[in-house]
Amino acid sequence: MSTQKELATEDYLSLINAAAETLKEKLQADPALNLALPRVLIICGSGLGGIADILQKEPQLEVEYGEIPGFQQSTVVGHAGKLIFGLIGEKNVPVVAMLGRLHFYEGYTFQQTTFPVRVCKKLGVSTVVVTNAAGGANPEYKPGDLMIINDHINFPGFAGHHPLRGPNLDEFGPRFQPLSDAYSYKLRHLFFTKAREIGVKRPIYEGTYMYAAGPTFESRAEVRMARILGADAVGMSTVPEVIVA
Prior knowledge:
The chain is an alpha/beta fold. 26% of the residues lie in helices and 20% in strands. The protein has six helices and nine strands; from the N terminus they run αββββααβββαβαβα. Strand 7, helix 4 and strand 8 form a beta-alpha-beta unit. The longest helix has 21 residues. It is globular, with a radius of gyration of 18 Å. The two termini are 22 Å apart. InterPro entries: Nucleoside_phosphorylase_d, Nucleoside_phosphorylase_sf, Purine_phosphorylase.
């Protein structure tokens, strides 16, 4: 259970808008920076902060979480707690990399753990790339293998711990959100195509990710249950962000 209280809906929406305006002002403060609002959000999971290194070195803007209204600081080692705005690829796509996510097991509410995703949507982000370090439940998987998520099991959701519980935020989507295509087939196919082009050697699978609240790792019985339910990997993040996105 979260150790913090959720905000009233109006207060939460006001905080989202304040955070978005703060980031817009920072992006526009230096005309020489010439960075457009991001179209893609990349959430860097545990130990994966190096993903931000694929951004072009210039122009870049780093913003610490402490500078943004409503952003909380992760208490987990390896989560830097900052946003990096920049460009990526030959087409100079404007992106924002999120170095450090919040987890339900840290005592944060789902309002807080998914807050950055909502703020980025207000900035104009339409695509979210989520990454994490997860435990393999599929016996074919080995440490270091890659898995592209094609579906998920929101296990805490069975007990009512759901990021969309409470008053619906209509400007972010409908009350009853379909999740049958939460993980874009087009983007998954693109990942496999590009992985082949650049010669990635390690195995790459597609599979179902089970979200568990943590912070303990799963018992043997829980891993067996995960396999019976169809999970290939289990972790303590990602799904709340995907549901809100």
